[in-house]
Each structure stands twice: as structure tokens, then as C-alpha cells.
Amino acid sequence: MPRTRLELEYDLDYLSILNAERELDEDLLPDIATDKLHRMYRTMLLARRFDERLLTLQRQGRIGTFAPVRGQEACQVGAMAALTDSDWFVPAFREFAAMHWRGFELADILVFVAGYNEGAAIPEGRHDLPFAVPVASQLPHAVGLAHAAKYRQRDEVAIVFFGDGATSEGDFHEAMNFAGVLQSPVIFLCQNNQWAISLPRDKQSRSKTLAQKGLAYGVPCLQVDGNDVFAVYAGVTEAAERARNGDGPTMIECVTYRLSIHTTADDPSKYRDQDEVQRWEEQRDPLPRFQNYLIEHELLSEDDAESMDSEIKEQVKQAWQDAADRIDDLAGPEMMFDYIYAERPAYLEAQREAFIQARQDAGA
């Protein structure tokens, strides 16, 4: 039999609306009310200032390890602003900007990163999941939530955030396959920040794009400028509409950059060229790009921006005071013995008492 070529419907677009040179495509610009634009900008600025405060607290030994979001604010805020409160939000471990948009209390986040699970509790009725630290483990959960919404005929979409490194994990491929087969209303949002901890993008995958990985599973794909809040908003809006219309999942790759460290346990100077970081920060930082747009189009004044920044700094400062007060009221490290058994056996009770006594003897 002769060899024949199969006809495959491969189609992948790249979307940019407000680029790094401040060039704007008016035809593609989404229609967003001014008050919503202000909220989007404020949330991005809050994420940046909160990030800075967390880093200071961690260096002072007051909180534990966390993953800064600096440089990826547009990916998260642009995506969440395109969805509704009834849609499901499934984060990884760097989604502080998205969490701010969803109304997570700053004090709760601080309590969590200080080492207390109480800070990760999700209030009843919210369609949010807590942090997911193991890479890509949250993707199947998002598909399950989306499938359940479809099964129950609810007008709900699930969005799941993950990094470029997650696309090398089995959970990613399993989730994509299930979502494609089941036509689940889920949005896979990959934040390609160019580094999977110390592994650069070009050593992570030979694929020209990460977005195209969805094509093998029959999932429509889109690559966007992840530092362009308008492009992210437009891409997620389109994906959400497709999902609500019963047309299944979408894979979106947001091309962005991690301007800070991977986590506070990381030293990027060992593997990353500082000149590369500086180029991204000076030329493509999403926060000043968005701010410049708002000011140039008279949607925000410089005085308003400065006032907003001052208010946010005070808000973050107060959040730490509230968190510190809550931490003082929480149980000490002996609580690690409390959630293993419904009733502590005698040997564990003895260990707990010995641990408490040892801390008292040490003056802790």
C-alpha cells in the first residue's frame, strides 16, 4: 500500500494586545470597565508589594519558604478577572496574585507561609482550592471539578495554574488526556516563566511551544504574551466561553518570566545570567506596562497610583500584625502530634509530653 499523509488540524495562534513597546492593537483590546481595570491594577500592585514584604519577613526568620510571584502578576490577574466567582480556581504554589483577586485574606496567607495549616482553610461555599506544592498534582483535581460541573449541568469552569516544569510530569498528560476525552470545561493555564527551578526552557522540552502539547489530546491551544494583562484576559475569556458552550478544554501558554527567585530556598545566581533578568525587568515587566497604559489613556492619574501604593503598603503592614497575633494564639509545635490519630495512643502521648518538657527546659 502507498504511504499517505494524514490530514491533521493543527492550529496555534500567538496573542499580544499591549506589547513591550507599548504598542496597542485597538481592534483586539477587550472591553473592560474602568473600575475593573482599577481593581486589576490594584491587585497586581498588591501582589508585588505583598511579595516584597514576604521576602523581608522570610529573611528575618518570621515565616518559612515561599515562591515569589514577581513578574507573573499579569498572567494571574488577567486570567482571574475573566472568570466569575462561581468558577473553580485551582492554584499551584505561586498564585498569590490570583489569590488576592479571589479575596483570600492576606493574614491567612501569612499564617500559612509561617507554617500553620490554619491559614490554608477555605471558607465554606468558596470555589477555591488551597496551595498545591507537589508539581502538577493539582491538574487532575481541576479536571475532576470541571467534569463534575458538566455532569451536574452547572455553568462552571475550572482554571488550573501550573508552570513550564509541570508539562514534563505525568499528571499533566493524564489530566490533558482525560479533559480531552471527556470534553471537560477546564482551562489549563501554563505560566512559562522560562525556568523550572534551575532548568531552562530550552532544556525542558524540544517543542517549539508548550501550548502545542495540548494538540495531541485534541485540546485547542493558544500562546499569549503573559506580561500583557489584556492578552491574558482575552485568551481566558475566549476559553471560558468555549467551555461554557460545551466545547471542552483549552490549553493556554502564558509566556512570562520569573523576575525573582524560584523559592526562598533558591539561589538563581548559580544558574541564571543577571543580564537576562535585567532585560526582562526593564523591557517587559507587566506592572509598569499596565500602569503606563492606564496613565497614558487617562484612566488613572500618577497621584492616584501613588496613593494606591501607600494604601497597599499599610494594608500589607496591618496584615502581618494581624497574622502575628493569630500565630501567638495558635498551638505550639507540639500540635504535630494532634492530627495523626482520632485518639492519641499512650506511646504518642508520652512523646508529646516529653517534647513539651524538652522545650520548657530549653526555655522555648
Q: What is the domain tally? A: 2
CATH overall fold name of the largest domain:
Rossmann fold
SS content category = alpha/beta
The amount of beta strand, in percent, is: 5-15%
Major sheet: size, sense and barrel closure?
6 strands, parallel
Sketch the topology as an H/E string, one letter per element.
EHHEHHHEHEEEHEHEHHHH
Mean pLDDT: 94
Q: If you compute it from the alpha carbons, what radius of gyration comes out, rounded to the nearest whole angstrom?
A: 22 Å
CATH-defined architecture of the largest domain: 3-Layer(aba) Sandwich
CATH class of the largest domain: Alpha Beta
Multimer state: single chain
Counting DSSP H or I runs of 4 or more residues, the number of helices is: 12
Distance between the termini: 80 Å
Which features characterize this protein?
single chain, 364 residues, alpha/beta, Rossmann fold, two-stranded antiparallel sheet, 12 helices, 45% helix
Structure description:
This protein has 12 helices and 8 strands. It has 364 residues and is an alpha/beta fold. The chain folds into 2 domains: 319 residues, Thiamin diphosphate (ThDP)-binding fold, Pyr/PP domains (Rossmann fold, 3-Layer(aba) Sandwich), CATH 3.40.50.970; 32 residues. Strands 1-7-8-4-3-2 form a 6-stranded parallel beta sheet, sandwiched between helices. Strands 5-6 form a two-stranded antiparallel ribbon. The mean pLDDT is 94.
